[in-house]
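Table S7 (text form). Paired inputs.
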Amino acid sequence: NIIGSAEIDAMLQIEDNIIRWDRDVPFLKRILLGLNSFVSDHLNEGITLRILHKLSTWNMTKGGDCEDCGFFFKGFNGLVHSLTQAFGSLEFAIPETVFSVHNNHTFTIDNYGEVILTAKRVKIYGLDDITDLSLFHPTGENMIYSAVTSDAGFNITVQMEVEVKPVEGRVFKADALRETFELKLNTSEFSFSSQSSISFDREMFNKLTIGSFKYGSYTEYEGNRNPLNCIFETLSSASVTDMKARVSLNAVEVVPVISVAEACVGVNLEGCIDRLINNVLKLILLEYPVTATETLDGLVRGPAIDVLNKVLKDLITSTKKYPLHCVNVEIPKRRSRPFYFDSSKAIIMFDKVVNQPGTLTAVNTFIDCIGSFVESHNMLSGKFFNYTLGDIIFYFRDLTHENLSQVSELGLLKPDIDSFHVKNSLGYGMCYTHNDTSKFSCNAPSVSFSIDLEHSKRGHIGTITVNLKSNNIQIEGGAEVQFDLHWLPFLTISDMLARPQCLSTPATDLSLYGFNSSMGALELELDVELISQGGTTKSYTYKTDDPLKLASIISILLSEGALLLQEKWDHYLSIRMDDATHSCTTPVNPNRAHAAEHSIRSAGFFTFLIVFAFI
């Protein structure tokens, strides 16, 4: 059959009217790719552990070879292990209905009755030992790929309820049977992957706004207040194109929740059924393990995909029967509604959770753990870093430290000045310094290391030993954010997922202030040994006469650098906000204050000051 030009144009128009990753939502694609890449690279190694690993010759083949310092120290698996209190498990109740799919199923047996099987709860063990993980990984034009692999496998417990209702006058005559039991599956070498095609109607999707989810009239239909209805409304189609499952079933067991005192004694039907089912399952797994694995994979590849696709198709079809109620929604026009940081419930809750003494204790404990970890593994003993300058290679070695857990102040997003300013601050090694500037009145943080100098032709030409001790380090900076909540509902979802600068469209003003960094005291000791061409060794020693004076000089440089950083970031924010005016389909806040062009000073002078101070 020859397809005419009109049909080809119609097909191209249909294909062009779907949302594509690169063309329509590149920002969302970058986020998903970045998250998947980050999780994949840090399943067992957090950022801190990976840096320490690179700095040393310590050979860590698996995260389990070391203790866990908490937070993200041992990567995603370590975080799950910590959040689940070392159980590595997740338990949740199965809702009665999910996207029109019920949690029960009724089987009718002719001449006997009905069997109703209901899934109640699921508990999964082994979530802290995942080998590979990908979630919503963008592929192709509009495809999504997800996969999870665990070499150790998962232990899965499903709590179920079975109810048998005999039909009167038929073969089976008895009272209704109801039993709650647990289906326990012990697996190894678990691997599951799926690929789906998601097609959003581009024209309708571009009309979705933040206000669509808040003011859309979808709440009038069937009393369903699910915001996902607005997403389904813009869906043209969704289907699972491929799904694979490779699982080695080691054991399957049916366990009654209420134990039967004497199974298979007298007329105890429940006990007999449980034993019969378990014996059959054991026989299958013992005699036909490969068959069980292949059967499960076949069920997932065939019937499971068909069922899921039918559910998705029915869901989209039923949604399309309603009038359009999320796109082109009428957003009420109101007066300006500024966002006040000092009265926001979210900011107040964040302040109570983060800005408290317990957070400082957790941070310092984390630092102590890392210090002990580094020391116990001798990670920074010997050469851990090198730098080449001309013919000379600088080998850094034997780093030691004392009193590093000295974080004494930590403030994040704390309201400041008025309702539109928030400030961040960090205080480290805060303590009082005696008038005698040669002494510290507290256990100040200190670091010591050596530098070997190696010449490409002459070999070893000297060693520099450095001892640093400092205190009263203060870093702070804030932002003025005037955000009009009245204009937030007008922000289109397509803009938000395509260009990050469009998130600033409701803002009236956005600028930085108060960037500063200072140091109370700094003590520096240098022991230098240089070997001349004749083989003579010359030694030099330097020690700070006035730690306060040296710290004041460093503070000037740090303050100047902080101010330069503030100006550069402020200038970048100004450019992004101006760019939103031209690149976003969402109209920007008409009350926006046009930021004046910030003067960006050259970093050359600041760099010169640092080099001069070092010399």
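Next pair, protein 2 of 2.
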Amino acid sequence: MFQDGSMPGSVNVLEAGAGQARGEHARMSSIIGALAIADVVKTSLGPKGMDKILQPGPGSTNQMEVTNDGATILKSILVDNPAAKLLIDISKTQDEEVGDGTTSVCVLAGELLRQAEKLMEQQLHPQLIVAGYRRAADVARKALEGMALDHSADKEAFRNDLERIAQTTLSSKVLSQDKEMFSKMAVDAVLKLKGSTHVEQIQLIKKAGGTLKDSYLDEGFLLDKKIGVACPKRMENAKILLANTPMDTDKVKIYGTKVKTDSMAKVADIEAAERAKMNAKVDRILAHGCNVFINRQLVYNLPEQRLSDAGVMVIEHADFDGIAQLAHVTRADIVSTFDTPDMVKLGEVDLIEEVMIGEDKLIRFSGVPNAEACSIVLRGANHHILDEAERSLHDALCVLSQTVVNTKVLPGGGATEMEMAQAIDAAALDVPGKQALAMEAFARGLRAMPEIIATNGGHDAADLVAKLRVKHNAGGTNFGMDMDKGELGDMYELGIMESFKVKLHVLMSAAEAAEMLLRVDNVVQCAPRQRQ
């Protein structure tokens, strides 16, 4: 056999430089690539998971990161194996859809493939394994739905559930030491959204200095900019005009253009014309009746002085994100031209003022029309801690916003995985043929999850998982592992709870990814493009 997989005397239809792997070789290369990615993040799983340092390569503009967030770790890994890329993609999808479970989905898919590999060594056909996995996933889904609780009818109990879910999500992050404070903060912020999943309305502002305990939730909207020179620093009953327009002196903005004059008087005429044009623009802005002007671009000295003389507060260079968020918060239009004042909707705010956070000045908008908006100010020792705190809190906010919509909750600590595995084992007894072996392998893959969590916590995994299996067999559906004490406990009593939607997404995504890779029997690699 040649290196490209062809046999002597066979016809090779691929162009020079292309290659392919067939049959068992293709399948094993896919499984090995996926397992390698799963093993990278395996030690980050659970409340006692370890962090990873992501160091950029030479010449890279990225900064070093310290994190145990699965999606962040996998996004930074450049891989060539197609199966490894598939696992990275499902982790990204998990992060975008529900915000948490990025490590779990990768590790579970890896464990399912590990069990499938053992079955294939016993000459079980991949299609039989896929059919068994599909049956097992259906059984696991029904078991999940059967053990879920819904307290949405009781506001107090539901808020308590949300706080516990936030604490469970944060317990594996850098915020675990102050998870009670941050969970209350996250729940308050999400409940202000009133059922919306647009968490971008919750602004996260990072300011180095102090400790994580100094972080707080601000009811208003904070903009990390400064008010213009000689402008009012406080404005009550503000009428805000949001703009995206050049406010420098209107020079000829065609690159390479030259203006030749034969006297300085003509240069002065050009400058006077530019000033007159800018003054006319300022007059059109003032005609809108605003007392606050916020521009995405720079505001030069002449228009700033004119506006401040008219008692207008000027905020410049608010960048696109700041302008877009302000438009959403204040219900204002973003304008680029000022010829139709009667058609422009101004934003209205009760109070705009400068506030100090640490050693920096920020602008606070209080009494905004959109009551769903708020800001969370994160404090910390350095930018590495702040970046990881932002990722952690964003995960919690995403999970909570999804839970407010899909209100079912589940016990954590490996209880759901063990219960699903028990249900699959029971269902496999009624399945004749080799599919039952695949279902049992799926159950073993699920049981590997609490085993990995216990191992990462430094406990005797085999002993804990065996005890947990006995407990679930005796009807202790809500029992899971307490990683602080290294023993079993009732997860609802301990307050270790997870979102139903996150768990279901992890299960289905991992099962589908494993099925897809098991179906592969041929990997065709295109020839590299030749440089001309």
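Residues 419 and 475 are 10 Å apart (CA to CA).
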